[in-house]
Amino acid sequence: MPGSTFGTLFAVTNFGESHGPAIGCVIDGCPPGLSLSQADIQIDLNRRRPGTSRHVTQRQEADQVEILSGVFEGKTTGTPIALLIRNTDQRSKDYANLLDTFRPGHADYTYWHKYGLRDPRGGGRSSARLTAPMVAAGAVAKKWLHEHYGTVIHGYMAALGELPIPFEAWEHVERNAFFAPIADVSLLENYMDELRKVGDSCGARINIVADQIPVGLGTPLFDKLDAQIAYAMMGINAVKGVEIGAGFGSVAQKGSTHGDEITPQGFRSNNAGGVLGGISTGQPITVSIAIKPTSSIRSPRHSIDRAGNPVVVETFGRHDPCVGIRATPIAEAMLALVLMEQALWQRAQCADVQISPLFTTSLSNNKTV
Amino acid sequence: MPGSTFGTLFAVTNFGESHGPAIGCVIDGCPPGLSLSQADIQIDLNRRRPGTSRHVTQRQEADQVEILSGVFEGKTTGTPIALLIRNTDQRSKDYANLLDTFRPGHADYTYWHKYGLRDPRGGGRSSARLTAPMVAAGAVAKKWLHEHYGTVIHGYMAALGELPIPFEAWEHVERNAFFAPIADVSLLENYMDELRKVGDSCGARINIVADQIPVGLGTPLFDKLDAQIAYAMMGINAVKGVEIGAGFGSVAQKGSTHGDEITPQGFRSNNAGGVLGGISTGQPITVSIAIKPTSSIRSPRHSIDRAGNPVVVETFGRHDPCVGIRATPIAEAMLALVLMEQALWQRAQCADVQISPLFTTSLSNNKTV
Amino acid sequence: MPGSTFGTLFAVTNFGESHGPAIGCVIDGCPPGLSLSQADIQIDLNRRRPGTSRHVTQRQEADQVEILSGVFEGKTTGTPIALLIRNTDQRSKDYANLLDTFRPGHADYTYWHKYGLRDPRGGGRSSARLTAPMVAAGAVAKKWLHEHYGTVIHGYMAALGELPIPFEAWEHVERNAFFAPIADVSLLENYMDELRKVGDSCGARINIVADQIPVGLGTPLFDKLDAQIAYAMMGINAVKGVEIGAGFGSVAQKGSTHGDEITPQGFRSNNAGGVLGGISTGQPITVSIAIKPTSSIRSPRHSIDRAGNPVVVETFGRHDPCVGIRATPIAEAMLALVLMEQALWQRAQCADVQISPLFTTSLSNNKTV
Amino acid sequence: MPGSTFGTLFAVTNFGESHGPAIGCVIDGCPPGLSLSQADIQIDLNRRRPGTSRHVTQRQEADQVEILSGVFEGKTTGTPIALLIRNTDQRSKDYANLLDTFRPGHADYTYWHKYGLRDPRGGGRSSARLTAPMVAAGAVAKKWLHEHYGTVIHGYMAALGELPIPFEAWEHVERNAFFAPIADVSLLENYMDELRKVGDSCGARINIVADQIPVGLGTPLFDKLDAQIAYAMMGINAVKGVEIGAGFGSVAQKGSTHGDEITPQGFRSNNAGGVLGGISTGQPITVSIAIKPTSSIRSPRHSIDRAGNPVVVETFGRHDPCVGIRATPIAEAMLALVLMEQALWQRAQCADVQISPLFTTSLSNNKTV
User: Fold this and answer.
1) Does the predicted TM-score (pTM) go above 0.80?
2) By residue range, what is the domain housing residue A180?
3) How far is A338 from chain B (nearest CA, A)?
4) Total domains present in chain B
5) CB-CB: which of B109, B229, B310 is closest to A281?
6) What's the pLDDT tens digit per position in C203-255?
7) Is residue B191, in this structure, part of any structural domain at all?
8) pLDDT in tens, B245-264
9) Residue D82 lies in a domain
10) ipTM over 0.90
11) Do D299 and C106 touch (CB under 8 A)?
């Protein structure tokens, strides 16, 4: 596919631009018989929605999803599920002057070279707004996975700029604007307020965990489960790094430490992050991603225009000062799409395999990634 | 594809097991008219070959490649190029006792659950030996990319276990067994000798750089160039983390630092690692990967057998005490395959676009990633 | 893909049901810079539209297309083009009684077995209404092919039920409701009027021709150009047979007759139908398809219900008494999509090949297929 | 894929040329645990083998298959199965003079234009010899389908040139060189002897039937089961037409005749050929294909050389005077590959659907297609 379809068996085709009439996606291959309503999808869309706190973009979008097809009398029919989200708060004039300028850190320069033309309105296709349809599709995958395996996929912010965020408890995550697993987020709020004042932005680290995963998802090479996860995560706007399990920490580990020992009760540790040889172990799948600081900042930056002349760029308009703040539901959705895809592959090839699990899989409930 | 084909337009299908009669691959979609001989491919296979120093596995394999199809009178014909490498130094008896045991850190447990049976000889399909065909295919991609764009893809070891390795110069890389960019590798040799003595293993960090990349490779979402690279890298055995450009360092950066400014002479920095909005900028593409310590070690480890009973595993046989040592040509090959694929996609969709580059792309010659 | 995406490089993902809120498609991979407006697409949609004569279904649908994305200031941007067509004349109650019954010749029985449930409103997903988005996508492909190669794709009805239709001239085709290449269609009209009177239906044969095709499209095996065409044609509702060139007539031909001789001025005949070894010759591509009689007829038919009890089915509602009447623009569109796809593949792999054509390609202007 | 891979879940990648060192394929995605030996594959390879009667090419090839991977202790492991067939009877000098000439009816002209160069030895990649690996892969699919559903796929010759062949009984098919379902093939033998005498060739019609097919295989659009079958069949060398069920006969049928009525005991007829709405009905799948006369004949034909000058071509060497004679096992194999693929898709998406068949499926045992 030319890039806009994610997955093969549970194939999500994304379309739209930030300031066009609508964005959306088509999910092809959803198993039939799944109960599905707009409300099921809206939950996660609302978690990702802009304008919900002072720390994110003030663009007002209800992100109301319309199911155009694939559902009959509240059940999926097995045919394509088209999801439509109308854009309602476009302000294209904000961007009129940017058609001729390449904003540093943005896709302006590369789009122009690749396509010979580009839609400059709000970043057009390169806008993080295009993650909304993936969140919608991910909600469908999450629901199916939960019904079939009890799978729960949840994430949290592990660092905001220079501030590492300790893992206190899952229960805090949904109670603050940052998806931070801590009771008191005043430090984070101050940090963001300070950044906005100086017209700058910061990065973030997000951890995502999938609990209750069947053993056996993924294929040896090169569609390893972890390779698919890395692909999905690095495909999210602004992501610059991906780790599975011990990640870069494994470089300095010894084999006698890293290799997770097994007992009749289960694995003793999870340096593998739930994946061995590209295939899920049944332990929690643990992923960590690095999100770069927002490129749209008020501070003046040097750049050039299409004629090659030097210019200074100051970006006003409405932007997230840390795109990582809204990234948690996005990363969850992408992980859900990967797991959904692999669950269907596994049924296709290995439906006849009958191996009883040797032990109950563990949960990530009270530990950090 | 069920996992063994990499790429769509330049599609490499890998087959074989560590101790079966042969391994190999089929390259479908190679442009016609490329001069190609076995020698072109053998160069990189020899760089990856086992048994070339005391720091790697002592298995003796010439890894002699045979071109079975797709080349006529020294030129590629545009039809599938089948490459065959016979295994010659199998010692399957070394592994006979492992059929019933799950080695910690290995794919034994997951293969058994997924497939209901597994080939235990040398890890079967999960062996890093299966990277050899990818190195062979990568050599074809490297050659084509170099002829078309002058692209050079090279890598080096940036850390060996706890030892960070400073970048001194590219010229050192091919002169030592570690692909280390330093003149004196005695520290690394001592470190490895010590590890072998205690029967343990270590991880490594490998950096890979691609110079002379055309602007415009990759697609917005979700086949971003960096997503494809992350997929390719995480698909290599033992890789647990992938970074592009500033990677995890970008979490603590400010937007005013991270976003690479542009001047009429080019980009001022390369935090992007050569990719913006999923599309190549023409700057060097910089990738860094984390390789976990080898799981096969002499030190006793706890595990269970297929009946769920506890066992102690001590792995003898022939193993790399640090699989990262031979990983550099593998990672180069995977990056070459991604770039080749994307170069063909770009011709397919955007062959008519005529944008002159605004400046000459920079090289990575005298800087670290 | 799970069936709803056609093509890989020019990938068209179709969604919707006959009586849902909307139908449509997403075109991913369209080359950038193509001038495109809704009017370009509406032309072919209008040719396929229902309700335009007494010989087709009386369902009233304007089939007005909305471009949701992928076009900026009148040019394609290279990003996904989403096309939406709202359904406006649903009469779902017409079909309420059909949920429990399997109509002979219809997909009711197979959908129910496959998916365990089905949308019975107007055939749901199995309705020929779903060809409208393909006609829309085909219009985009036709435009690009015409601009790049001068390609013209046109079709006509070659038989209506038992009536063979002689080829008189292309100019007649667009002047009657049948796409018949004859000046006087009164025989056809009488035939249809008679059928409607008795509550029966008939089949049709449609021929499609593509003129001005570049040499070299298609790949040896198994994506032969003719294989792709056969796939595309047999994928159209109600098609039961596909021929390329001499088709089934070639069974009784001798090799000395069938093999098209070549002269310095070009091919002497076109038994090949424009394809040799799976690759286009530059001659007109000639395709012929068989369309079965409409299954929805007033005459009573025997069937069973979901409990397995015998029932008698008489189908009222609005139906085409010969679905072949509106099939010509659909078959043209599918051929356009195949050629577009293959044109992009050819650029991807063989852009560097420089072979001058040895002669001018011939046209199909004044001959039948 | 660039054309050489057939299927997605049961993906067969074909490689080789007629006179290169070897031909073969890689099957990726085969379910694990299937008993598989070389003998299982050799049966069908022997049915397709050249040199077994005076009516086919006299090239001597044992077509001995070697399993290089994917099978351990007699069972498939779920990893790629690589199959290798060495070419042993190349006579490349036979073709040396053909490098400069385009043989009428052959792929010479199109390969040269597409790729800019071609392997002329025995037709290179365009040789029907490349169907051997598909027959090998098809044998694996046949075995799996038979074990899972009792599926039997068999074909027969329905016409040899101008001679229609009545269906007498399946038992005759394997007892003559033609796969003809008749007891006495002397008429066919005389016809072929006559053709060889005059240096000409003829076409053939082959029917293929699949019995014991589960209901529900295939997807609505555009991967309809019949579309996939048409693709597979038209991808076989020399095929010019494909019919499903009533095929072109349905053009002149009325709806009241064509639509197969259903009773509590099953379908009353099979005009559908076992497919409704793109999905299998459980009835026998019936396919008919037209095979053009061999293009390589002794009779002189007009053509041109690469410089555009007129030449006369007389083809000596070893050729099948009717490629249709050996086509039956090839067409069976391609149908098996399609059904295998769709069976896995069905498990992937619809494994949870539990609908009991309403009646036993019928067999094609004593009737013609």
Assistant:
1) yes
2) 91-350
3) 12
4) 1
5) B109
6) 999 999 999 999 999 998 888 999 999 999 999 999 999 999 999 999 999 99
7) yes
8) 999 999 999 999 999 999 99
9) no
10) yes
11) no
